[in-house]
Amino acid sequence: MKTSMSSIAKREERYFYIFISPWIIGFLIFIAGPIIASLYFSFCNYDVVTPPVWIGFQNYKKLFFDPLFWQALKVTSYYSLLSVPLGIILSLVIAILLNQKIRGLVWFRTIYYIPSVISGVAVSLLWMWIFNPEFGILNFLLWKLFRIHGPAWLMSEEWVIPALIIMSFWGIGGDIVIYLAGLQGIPTELYEAAEIDGANSWKKFLNITIPMMSPILLFTLVMGIIGSFQVFTQAYVMTRGGPHYASLFYVLYIYQNAFQFFNMGYASALSWILFIIILLLTLLIFKSSPLWVYYESTRER
Amino acid sequence: MSVSRRKNEILIKVIVYVLLVISSIIILIPIFWMLSTALKEDSEVYLFPPEWIPKRIYPNNFIRALTFLPFGRYFINTSVITFLSVIGQLISSSLVAFGFARLKARGKDLLFMLVLSTMMIPSQITMIPIFVLFKLLNWVDSFKPLIIPNFFGGAFFIFLLRQFYMTIPIELDDAAKIDGCSYFGIYTRIILPLTKPALATVAIFTFMWNWNDFMGPLIYLNSREKLTLSLALSRFTGMYGMTAWNLLMAASIVVALPCFILFFFAQKYFIQGIVITGLKG
Q1: A54 pairs with which residues across the strands?
Q2: Mutual orientation of helices A105-117 and A173-184 as an angle, nearest 10°?
Q3: Average pLDDT over residues A228-248
Q4: Looking at A21, A37, A59, which one is the last position of a domain?
Q5: Which residues in chain B have their CB less than 8 angstroms from residue A16's CB?
Q6: Mean pLDDT for chain A?
Q7: Chain B residues near residue A97 by CB distance under 8 angstroms
Q8: What is the pTM of this model?
Q9: Which domain covers residue B159, as residue numbers?
Q10: Residue in A with minimal Cα distance to B90
Q11: DSSP tally for chain A: helices H, then strands E
């Protein structure tokens, strides 16, 4: 066996590291370093002005008895549990409708994607106005179409999260585009073969569309959950976590601790818990995926 | 084929169109409402029932909204941050992607896995130490914390560009090498010119993210004259009280306009980027 590399291969390897050096430097400075530092801070009392003081597990203990931590966790899970799966179902349905060899496909796709173009603060302000209980368009339409007196939405402890979930559906255009591309990639022979076997539309959907789409669904589910645990702008701009902490999203609570109360240590502990939750959820989904995700390569068995 | 089956197909088509049109209208109502409110007179904003179309169109709202705050200043600030971020991301991500796609090295696959796994890391975990770092460097309340990190490549973009670079036949590189072309020459003369659409996608997404970024500016910018559009917009609510929704909507439209225009001219690249990376924009 040859152990030493040829000089050409060595040269190529050197160039490889030169080319990727921006990422390596960035990884060390902006990812690896900060992760270690964050872990250290989470065991300290730290207000940025004076040096960090080691306090052991104090932050984590405090967190366990902090009602607002539990509240933030509850709010975020509630939002995540509803907005992610419902958003996926909604975008899959629309993508399937778009995939029915219709005219004006590009136009429809453009319309669905438009809301994703205006993101961030502008969208938050727009929906604050839509949800305005007295003069907003939503309650007006509810009354006009269904004779329903709409709730106070963002000003109601009960309705603030449902309101934000509804708002999240406005931004499903990206998922629709992803699913549509996936649907278009399913070989038509599969459907034709099923038709010969006498399968109806529902059977075809269940036995062809869903299995063929499952890897894409898995990916969007994971990214959706990660994203939903990081909601910040809406909460900060629209509700500041209110009314009475009913929309205290997890990242908003981290932000408040870090940059309003300057409890950097406590905020670091909070973000480590967030990191672990996201990691566990991702792992759980991936571990369970062989049960429901279909991969072409394992079909033979 | 039987007549009833044919009838069935037509019925399904009709249902499909009806559902698509209804959902499109639902999607468009908020945008229409935004525009309509922005053009209303102050007194008409708080009318009940609301008017879909303003009785009198009041374009003056746009001027009022833009002159209340130093919007020009904020527009320049946001543009500078966004432009430099795009440049940084284009240079760094394409260099790194070239390494991963075209050069052989030990440990490459492992490193690439590391790149991909960083996509899963929530930015909140690194947010505080990075803030501390920039504070030590005395960069807080400057644009540097918002720009500089873009010069070290983004995992999503590295992935996207690598996928594109892999599709270019490696024989091109070999031929260039025989002609005495260096690796850097292959990168600038072969790969970059052939992957302009992919670079456009990277530029567009970086533009959108930085233009709309809120948390970054919120953490790093304090001085009144250094705000970005997003940040200024969020403070607008407090300044005007909760009353001037017409001005707020006018300002929101102006802030969103560049992204809108970009989308309509470069829709192809948006779709491409979303499909390849699973990014939602």
Answers
A1: A44
A2: 140
A3: 91
A4: A59
A5: 99, 103-105, 108
A6: 89
A7: 16, 19-20
A8: 0.90
A9: 66-229+256-277
A10: A22
A11: 16, 2
